[in-house]
Amino acid sequence: MSGTSKGARSREQRQQRIVDHVLNQGSASASELTELVGVSLMTVHRDLDELVRRGLLRKFHGGVSAQPSTVFEGSSEYRMGAQRSQKEAIARTALTLVEPGGSILLDDSTSALAVARLLADIGPLTVATNYLPAIEVLKQLPEVHLICLGGNYSATHDSFLGLPCIEAVGALSVDMAFLSTSAMNATMTYHQEHELVQVKRAMLAAAETNVLLMDSSKMPRKALHRMAPLSDYDRLVIDDGADEELVAAARDVIPTMIAPIES
Amino acid sequence: MSGTSKGARSREQRQQRIVDHVLNQGSASASELTELVGVSLMTVHRDLDELVRRGLLRKFHGGVSAQPSTVFEGSSEYRMGAQRSQKEAIARTALTLVEPGGSILLDDSTSALAVARLLADIGPLTVATNYLPAIEVLKQLPEVHLICLGGNYSATHDSFLGLPCIEAVGALSVDMAFLSTSAMNATMTYHQEHELVQVKRAMLAAAETNVLLMDSSKMPRKALHRMAPLSDYDRLVIDDGADEELVAAARDVIPTMIAPIES
DNA sequence: CTGTATGCTGTTAATTTAACAACAACTTCG
DNA sequence: CGAAGTTGTTGTTAAATTAACAGCATACAG
């Protein structure tokens, strides 16, 4: 490609040092970081912008902090970033399952959003979702018949949930649902929040074919609520950074597609 | 309370002038606006922040613009335009009917959007709507419990319609609905599109009190579909540019509030 | 009438951003 | 193999934005 081998490496190391320092101190000013890593103020700002974009840090006027300092801003933006290329690869692979003229369901996950972003040139398609960022993307596409699944707005997820949403899903019958969960193992999928579990289960029931989108970072973990057994899904799409053993185990249960991460 | 009578008035006028100028020019720089309104740069920035918060302007580094700088503008935002100050006046008057703790319904009209923009400091409130621009505004307000009425997305209206929406409305029972129609006379309201009529009728049925928002520009006209008799509404809010005769006739049917247009 | 509180405004200093120039690493092509 | 071109990273400079504090006018209570 281009001049990235040495440059990118030192850049990464530098950003890692910044993250470490901020995580230790809780927060730091830009000029403070200038001295720490020995580059210009401008470069520090550029690093910080990227780290914010990746969801690792928070920026406020005067510096950066480790945690969501105030409240604001859906943590959904937050989730993207780090595994962005994985999610994009997964979405590209999952996209091969979509056929023009069909109907699909997208849940409120960044993985599903990545799918939405790739639906431009498929052909006529009906897409239903409760996820506002996905709606913003899909409303631009003239060939997509968009259905919004309404409900109670959740600022933390930037989506619509609750009984109204479940009922709206229940009224549908679609070809395919693309779902993601916060954790899984060889037999079960899990999620942190009960409210989301209810909606996702309704989606599972409403679709002919259920596709589970998983980026490897969340693979060998559990979470509070059991959501659905792996056997409830018809297809697993996962990136190639996943634990071999787990993938092998999952393969015994459902057809599994491995998404290659581009360099 | 405090020093707001004269100060606030000039402040509002100033912001109005800023909005007018930006809408005319398409965009403007902060320093340019400084000369226009004759206050310090800092105050201009404070005004712009507030106008952005109210959803009237977009800010980018170096100035502000009327539309989403990157994309085209939704045709719905556009409709505002000429009758913008009327609609804002109407909304401000209608707002006096809203009580904290209550629940309200907003239809997919720019008049209802104007109401949404003023809901910031009312107190806890439940608001349901099928209108995407209103959702974008309301999702910012921490005190508002927002319910999205889902349905089939209509690009021409930027809202959700059809059977799913009607069913979602039917599941609700709210204190007050704020509606607008494309035409009215002394006994009847009308609308151009049947699909909208159905949704609005459902809203009428779901609310305890129905408030009709009318800017005078559309008063003495008819439109294709009869929507509902004026007697189905409980309150009419109209700006003071309306035809005297018609207002008098309407007064015989329902309580009517006249919204003063500021200079 | 006086004191206090509240909100709006201006000034200053610090921070952040955009825009451009310089440079290194890699690629391509002769 | 080397020259030219491309791409990505960094630094410099100037402009823009923000926070913080101080000053002033108005409203209200006593």
UniProtKB/TrEMBL annotation, chains A, B:
Keywords: DNA-binding, Repressor, Transcription, Transcription regulation. Gene3D superfamilies: Winged helix-like DNA-binding domain superfamily/Winged helix DNA-binding domain (1.10.10.10). The keyword Transcription applies. Residues 11-66 form the HTH deoR-type domain. It comes from the Bacteria. One of its GO terms (molecular function) is DNA-binding transcription factor activity. Repressor of the lactose catabolism operon. Galactose-6-phosphate is the inducer. This is Lactose phosphotransferase system repressor. It comes from Halopolyspora algeriensis.
